[in-house]
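TL;DR need structure tokens for one chain.
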Amino acid sequence: MRLIPTVEDFTSDPVVQRYDDMLNPPGLTNFLGAVQVDHDITAVRSVNFAPVSHGDTVTGALWVDGRLFRSFGEPVTIRWRPDRVDRSARLGDLLIESTTVTPPGVDGVVVDVAVTNTSGVERMVRLGLSVASTVTQAGPWRVPEPPSEPNTLAPVPGRAALLGRATATAAVSVQGLDADGARVRDRSLEVDVSLAPGERYRFGYVHVVGTDADGALAAYDAVVADVPGQVAAARTLWDDTLRAAFTPGNDQFSGHVPTLETSNDALRRLYWWGVLGVIWFRRDSPASHLGRVYDTLMPRYWQTTTFIWDFSLSSMIHALLDPVPMRRQIEHWIALDIHRHFGTEWQTGGPAGYWYSVNDYAMIRLVRDYVRWNGEPGFLDVELTAHDGPAKAVAQHVADWATAWEGFRTSHALADYGGIDNLLECVSSYVHEVASLNAANVWCMRAAADIAALRDEGGLADDLRKKADALVPHVGELYVEGQGFWHARQPDGRLLPVRHCYDFTTVGMTIAADLPERRREEMVEFFVRELQTPSWMRALSPYDDDAAFSVRPDHQWNGAYPAWPADAARSLIELGRPDVAAAWLPGLARTANQGPPGQAHFVEEAAEPLNGGAVKSPPQFPYLIDWSCSSAGAWSALVVEGFFGVRPDVDGSLTVTSRLDSVDPGARLRNLRVGGRLVDVSAEGVTASA
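>> reply
TL;DR here they are.
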């Protein structure tokens, strides 16, 4: 039983696609920037390494014998793993294969290409790559797609390369081949090859970006000198990173995650999936205003932006794996107005986007998880200045966030959380007084009360708990009796029934113990009946009146955002049905077959599953879904907090309420870091401590 994964453990299932199928091509990162492969054997797009951006420009498209490869209509097989993307296709008697990597420490990408003559006769072939360059240094990047600008292209003396220069900034790109005899044309690179029967020919395409020509050319020269060596180095980088993530006292992260011993392959796969999906977004860019940060989406949209909501959904993994940048990020957000943006653009540290209503709940989750997993109650006493007042203790900020909902009340007892853009963006009826965030307010006040009690502020703690208890029945007013779902109350008092998973997950994870038993049963029945699918789930029931409003699959009937199934399983556990969650795991694990979780996956009715796994949704309009999303850590939390039932508290206490009987009674977590000590956890509770 391997306890620490390698890149091999994350190798995706092969995806076969033809030109412009609705496929989301995989991405790559070396923790400096990101790249996405394109619908081709060699092409790449979104080559963006802050502060230099290409936007979403496609470059490196393959030509064979003077004809664009895509125009032949031949299918391409794509396989991803953390360090590389392998692509292959047959074109007549030619087998064409490529391996794409982002080399360690390089602002760029390489594609190692091999062409094999499978015929019984000698074969002449002309191979070419189109070159496009749109680099810029424009910033900050506060829109979904990174910026770009017109470039000029010119040959580089002494190299089989083209230099792209921005017209308005100092940004440059260098794109070239390592092939002997390669020729440079105005917008392409090409080489003629004579292949004997069965002969295999390889060449490398190198693409680097930079802020000045000399630096970019030096980086290009270093990489082009040994393209196969760069491929090997990418594997070493990722294997070393994965090993470090699971190793106490490693030299890459300020913490680590526990290893999992289990005979349940689905449990292991989903746990590893969550850890990988957070590591994937690590950014050690020198362009960052905040040092190490964690992005939210990649490789196409909102690069250099960290969303508060998504970060909080991976809160446990951030707290365990890398608490130092987590704390720095929390402190930075405290200094901004969290009621005016959804996150920060890390090249400047400035705010990005509009207000997300979840922010108060998200910030309390982040502070609480940082404190309780790291044994850092002293952080609660640190005085930090917010945007609108004098410095005060973090604990006081938590109390402010916990009661901020009172300022959002109108004529009713519950908070009104605004319009569509403040909530789920693509569900028009999920607006104003929603059950999810009002239930979260109950949880927030209780969490703030625990913190107040820890600081000997008994009066404040009592007041917060009384307010929380008083709010519970008002949340209950939104329930649709006998149906298992909830209303959204409008400003005029109308109650709109909304069959959305966010009510199911958040209510279940925050106030399950406050619900009558029959109501808990009805919620589970609703989930199984209308939301759950074999390998994924619907965010919105197809029976909901709003199901025709949008086809964006992160929150609609045709799919779900990647944290929703994990949190739905957590909700099932809290509602008393860990058996339902456990039975679902094998199907969910099949969906971990395409790299880290996508921003959304389609349910089975919306798109043919990939080897039984819910397929990632595409980036094209009208879906607009990125290939991966940082909320993946919710899957690891499902294992540790859900099935193992590990619950550290801010006062340093630790309880374990195991639900392992439903998945693997013999499972064990090793070297779980709780409150500054390492513990082993099994179904019997804490079994060892160091």
